[in-house]
Amino acid sequence: MKYHKCLNCGFNVTEQDERCQNCGVLHPLVSLELKELDTTIPTAIGTILPCIILLIVMYSIGQKRGDNDWIILSACMIPMALLPSYFVSILVVSIYKNFYDAKYKNDITNRRATFPESLIYKENLINQRKKELSKREDQVMTVLSKAKLNTDEKWKQVSTMLEDSIKTLKRQEAKYNLKSIEIDMVRLQNEIAPFVYNTDGFSYNQIDANLKIIEGVKGTANGIGNQINNQSKFLDSSEPKELTQRITEIQSSIDKLHDAYLGKQAVLALQDINPVDDASNPILPPVKAIQESEVFNTQVSITDFSESLKELESEYMRVQAEEDIAKQVDKLINETNTPI
């Protein structure tokens, strides 16, 4: 499996991918840059066209007169046609360029059209949901602060209800935070995938560069693990545990991959000093095991992520009731004659 960079966002894609899974662009390995326009043909058409028109006109005149003087006259008048040919060629090139630009821009617009299955689209949706939840939480907190000013039993019940609502909102927000973290995990898997599947023909210096990238990814993986732990305190579901297990597997595989490449680099360093049997090359068995485990199979991770996000979106609609409760209680507090 050979990976290449998406020319729109840099996500690793294969030649078989019709769309980039990260940004959603169509044909991710086809450049989005405006190609330099070859105006040779339209310039030639614009230059020759007036001369052809001149020959046709002179031929028609010659036919009516019944002589062949039109040939001589045409030869004499062709130089006179060069000036209009210049302006005609400019016009033809301009029309051609405008048509080309319009067609290209339309093609780019279609390729960059919003793709709901892309990670960026879902990331934007998650960020929007988190903002909405934060806003709702602020509303409930405002009402709760008013309700707590009254020690009446009725208001204590209201306060309890509002506190439960805040916990629900926090749990929902934590779930969306986990989805953001999961997107980071998918991108991390994608970043490391080429080092798992594109293992042929690496030189000593290339392996050295790859090791630096792998070491950077290790730090990213550790940071993701910490983020998962921070969100776990708001949730008692199995989802944080599942993500923790996934990131642990990823970290373990990254360590194995790092050791495998380091071993390969050592083999290459010793080849010019002592004969080294190819069978002792340590990179093959570990990398093959990682490939078979599919820890860095981005497609599988994205599919699982998409399914769980759909479930979370259905839960989100039920949280709408928390905002309604806040408004009702706020109205009750403002209309009551009881001082608070």
Based on the model shown, name its key terms.
340 residues; mainly alpha; two-stranded antiparallel sheet; 8 helices; flat
Compute the number of helices: 8
Structure classification: mainly alpha
Largest sheet: 2 strands, antiparallel
Strand order across the largest sheet: 1-2
Number of domains: 2
Gap between N and C termini, in Å? 68 Å
Structure write-up:
With 340 residues, the protein is an all-alpha fold. The protein folds into 2 domains: 33-111, no CATH class; 119-335, no CATH class. The chain has helices spanning 40-65, 69-111, 119-147, 153-197, 204-232, 239-271, 284-293, 298-335, and strands at residues 4-5, 12-13. Strands 1-2 form a two-stranded antiparallel ribbon. β1 (4-5) and β2 form a beta hairpin. α3 packs antiparallel against α4, α3 runs parallel beside α8 (298-335) and α4 (153-197) packs antiparallel against α8 (298-335). The two termini are 68 Å apart. The relative contact order is 0.10.
Summarize it.
By secondary structure, this protein is mainly α.
Structural topology:
Layout: E1 4-5, E2 12-13, H1 40-65, H2 69-111, H3 119-147, H4 153-197, H5 204-232, H6 239-271, H7 284-293, H8 298-335
Antiparallel strand pairs: 1-2
